[in-house]
Amino acid sequence: MKVQTISDLIDWTRMMHHQLAESLADGSTQHEQEMAKLLLSYLADHETALERIIEGFEQQADSKVLKTWVYDYLEHGPIDLRRSCDTPFAEMNFDEICGQVFNVHNQVIDLYRDLLARADIPEAQELLKELLATEEHETMRLAQQTNRMRDM
Fold first, then answer.
1. C-alpha to C-alpha distance for 34 and 12, rounded to whole angstroms
2. Cβ–Cβ under 8 Å, residues 17 and 11
3. pLDDT beneath 70, residues of the chain
């Protein structure tokens, strides 16, 4: 998917969370370790919930802001999940799973930070701030929950 507008960016983010949720769910059904299965299932559910949250941004945002071009601000394309991880989740241990998921989330956060720094229109800046805050908050929440699971 080619990201040209804020609407495309939101749609891409939503689809990325959807694809990640599917990959995690597939891994949870195939993994041999019980703790890893629980982690993958939790992460899949979290990504599905985050997909719905991101979808809400697109439904509530001003249509003029959604049409704002971001194409000129993208130095690199958005993350391709198929290329970001060569090993299936079913073959990873607990720490590798967490590392991969946080890597993806951190790339999304970096992308939003970069776009926010380059945005000129106040309304677009506000929407990007909200999207960034959501991604940061949810990543922090994931970190807390996975640390609790690790401690079990």
1. 32
2. no
3. 1, 71-85
Buried residues in 129-145 as b, exposed as e (16+ CB within 10 A): eebbebbbebbeebeee
Residue-level pLDDT at 4: 87
Q: How far is CA 71 from the centre of its chain?
A: 19
Per-residue pLDDT, 78: 57
Q: What angle do CA 78, 26, 150 make, to 5 degrees?
A: 85
What phi and psi values does residue 74 have, to the nearest 5 degrees? -85, 115
For residues 79 and 108, is the Cβ–Cβ distance under 8 A?
Answer: yes
Residue type at 103 in one-letter notation? N
CA dihedral in degrees (23, 116, 133, 94; nearest 10)? 30
pLDDT at 81: 62
Say if residues 123 and 86 touch (Cβ distance below 8 Å): no
pTM exceeding the 0.85 threshold for the entire prediction: yes
DSSP conformation letters of 61-97: S-HHHHT-B-GGG-SSPPP-HHHH-SS-GGG--HHHH
Which residues touch 130 (CB under 8 Å, ≥6 apart)? Answer: 57
R_g of the chain, CA atoms, integer Å = 16
Using the structure block, give the residue that is written with the tokens 């969370």: 17
